[in-house]
Structures are given as structure tokens and as C-alpha cells.
């Protein structure tokens, strides 16, 4: 397992991050704990969750999985907040009120005194970023959070956040978590260049395009049980003819290299400029075992050129990032920092 710097920090994280969105849902508690055990044994020291995953159950399982021995001390633990927590209209969003309450709740579920990386789970134009950053800075100063990051922020909002932090003397974001995979390279236009310019770690989620790049789906055959049915996933994203061409190429290349399609797709994301640690999201022990085999897969210049010929840099065969954005870009009455 290779380890890489988490942005401009002194923290080293494994080249793949264990994502836990399936924990407590499609992966029951026992299987989820086995997945954590295996990932840690293979050298993974970076785990990502969120308070919204499976109604908070993912955080509880992760907390239990890291509760023995020195596991918590040796693991870089990341979680996220923003989405509604119940019916209370104030139990959501990026306000100081919700942010602090969400952090306290996550700490309890995770059975820990601190969160290594606390991330904004999407941007929100209804709350001025200075309010959010001031509250996050308070959490860092109190010792409850070590570092802060964002997820699915467009390039301009990443830069705005960094400018506000500098202007007010606050702790800055150290990472961005965008949707990124071989079938959608949209983040290469602005997000990754901005992250590289300002020293933010890039932690891509969805590197297997919701399973489309695993090889379980066939263009001319009935789809297996999963997110993609009749060429569309559960968010109505469309698998285009070009996407199937890329999948066919991936299948051929995986055969040539003697690896699985998943491993090749993950190795491709991990090798892209600016990428720190793609997030794998297994629901079975078999899947996490396969996914982590990507550490032994390498791509040379010729391999990358074959892929680029079909889906060039900055292009998309599936509109995955844009559909996942879900950001509210309505302008504030005033964006001035106070």
C-alpha cells in the first residue's frame, strides 16, 4: 500500500480510502465489520463516512469497528455533514447551529473524541461561507476536528472558501471530494487544477461509476441486479453508447493485464494527476478484496492513450458529476465577508 500526503498537511493516507455508504444497508453490520478488518489488514488507514449514510448507522458501525486496540489512533477518520437529520428545519445545512450539533452527534456515534477530516457534504448558497468556516475553525480550536474539507464544490467555490479563510485568519480546507471516474472527467476542467494550485487533496468518490465499470453489466444482455437497469442508474443517469465502448475497452485491457475491470478502473483514477485517494465503496468482503488488488495494477503511457482516445481529458461519456452536483447556485443578497 502506498501512502500519500493529505493535501498541504503532514498527514499520510493510504492510496485508497474505504468508503462506508453501504454499511448498515446493503452490507449488514457483520459484513461491514469484516470489510473494515480486511481493509485495515491490507494497509488502509483512511476511512470515509457521513452522518446521512443509512440513517446514521454507517457512523455507528465505523465507530464500533475502530473501537478496539490502537485502531482509532492509527486511522484517519473522515465524515461529512449537511443533509437533513430528521424533520427539524434547522437540523440540516451549513449553519453554525447545525454544524456544531452535527459534529457532536457524529462524535458520539463514532465513539471518538475527534474527527480527523470533517467535510461539507455539498455546498449551500443559502449560508454565507464565512459563517460555516468560523464554526469549523472553532471546532478545530476546541480539538474536536483536526482538518476540514469539502465535497462537490465547484472550482470557484473552493477558491472563494480559501480566500475567505485567508481574509479572516481561519483554518482552510485541505481536501475536496468530487465524483470522478473514467466515464466522466468533468473535474479535470477546473476542480482538479484548482486543487493542485492551492494544495488540496482530491479524494474522488464513485470511481467505479456506481458499478458500471465493474463488468457486471453488459450492453446487449439483461442487466444484473444493481443500480443500473435498462442503461440508467437509480438517479436516472444514462449509459451512452460511448460509455459501453469504454467499458468494452476496459474489459479488453483488464484481460491483457490479468486483473479485474474494477481493479483497472480504480488504478486509472488513482494514477491521475492531483488525485490523492479514490474512495472504494464495497458491500461485500469479496468486493473489498478485489478493489484493494488495484494497488498491484499499473498503467503505462500507452494504456492511458488508449483510454484517452475514447474519452479524452475533461470529457464525459456519462453525465455523472453534473447530475450529482445538486448545488444551489442562487446568488446571496450579499456575498461580502463580515
What would your notes on this structure say?
By secondary structure, the chain is of the alpha/beta class. Helix content is about 40%, strand content about 10%. The chain has helices at about 30-40, 55-65, 70-75, 95-110, 130-140, 155-170, 190-200, 240-255, 260-270, 285-290, 300-310, 320-325; strands spanning about 5, 10-15, 15-20, 45-50, 75-80, 115-120, 145-150, 175, 200, 280. α6 (about 155-170) packs parallel to α7 and α8 crosses α9 (about 260-270). The longest helix is centred in the C-terminal third of the chain and has 17 residues, at about 240-255. Mean pLDDT is about 95; it is low at about 325-335.
Write the SSE topology.
Layout: E1 3-5, E2 12-14, E3 17-19, H1 29-41, E4 46-48, H2 57-65, H3 71-74, E5 76-81, H4 96-110, E6 115-121, H5 129-142, E7 145-151, H6 155-168, E8 173-177, H7 191-198, E9 201-202, H8 241-257, H9 261-270, E10 279-280, H10 285-292, H11 301-310, H12 320-325
Parallel strand pairs: 3-4, 3-10, 4-5, 5-6, 6-7, 7-8, 8-9
Antiparallel strand pairs: 1-2
Helix pairs in contact: 1-2, 1-10, 2-4, 5-6, 6-7, 8-9, 8-11
Amino acid at each position: 500500500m502506498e501512502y500519500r500526503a493529505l493535501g498541504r498537511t503532514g498527514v499520510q493516507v493510504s492510496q485508497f480510502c474505504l468508503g462506508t455508504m453501504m454499511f448498515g444497508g446493503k452490507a449488514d453490520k457483520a459484513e461491514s465489520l469484516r470489510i473494515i478488518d480486511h481493509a485495515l489488514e491490507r494497509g488502509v488507514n483512511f476511512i470515509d463516512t457521513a452522518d446521512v449514510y443509512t440513517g446514521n448507522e454507517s457512523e455507528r458501525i465505523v465507530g464500533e469497528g475502530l473501537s478496539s486496540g490502537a485502531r482509532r489512533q492509527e486511522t484517519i477518520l473522515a465524515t461529512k455533514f449537511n443533509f437533513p437529520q430528521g424533520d427539524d428545519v434547522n437540523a440540516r445545512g451549513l449553519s453554525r447551529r447545525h454544524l456544531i450539533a452535527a459534529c457532536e452527534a457524529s462524535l458520539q456515534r463514532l465513539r471518538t473524541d475527534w474527527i480527523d477530516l470533517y467535510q461539507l457534504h455539498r455546498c449551500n448558497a443559502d449560508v454565507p461561507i464565512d459563517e460555516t468556516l468560523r464554526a469549523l475553525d472553532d471546532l478545530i480550536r476546541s480539538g474536536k476536528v483536526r482538518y476540514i474539507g469539502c465535497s462537490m464544490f465547484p472550482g470557484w467555490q473552493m477558491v472563494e472558501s480559501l480566500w475567505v479563510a485567508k481574509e479572516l485568519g481561519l483554518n482552510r480546507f485541505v481536501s475536496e471530494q468530487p465524483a470522478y471516474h473514467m466515464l466522466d472527467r468533468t473535474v479535470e476542467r477546473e476542480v482538479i487544477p484548482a486543487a493542485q494550485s492551492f494544495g488540496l487533496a482530491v479524494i474522488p468518490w464513485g470511481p467505479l461509476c456506481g458499478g458500471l465499470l465493474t463488468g457486471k453489466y453488459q450492453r446487449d444482455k439483461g442487466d444484473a441486479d444493481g443500480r443500473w437497469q435498462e442503461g440508467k442508474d437509480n438517479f436516472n443517469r444514462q449509459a451512452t453508447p460511448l460509455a459501453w465502448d469504454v467499458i468494452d475497452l476496459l474489459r479488453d485491457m483488464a484481460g491483457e493485464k490479468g486483473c479485474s475491470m474494477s481493479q483497472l478502473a480504480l488504478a486509472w483514477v488513482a494514477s491521475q494527476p492531483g488525485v490523492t485517494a479514490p474512495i472504494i465503496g464495497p458491500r461485500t468482503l469479496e468486493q473489498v478484496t478485489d478493489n484493494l488488488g488495484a494497488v498491484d495494477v499499473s498503467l503505462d503511457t500507452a494504456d492511458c492513450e488508449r483510454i484517452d482516445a475514447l474519452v479524452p481529458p475533461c470529457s464525459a461519456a456519462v453525465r455523472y458529476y453534473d447530475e450529482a452536483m445538486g448545488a444551489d447556485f442562487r446568488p446571496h443578497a450579499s456575498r461580502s465577508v463580515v
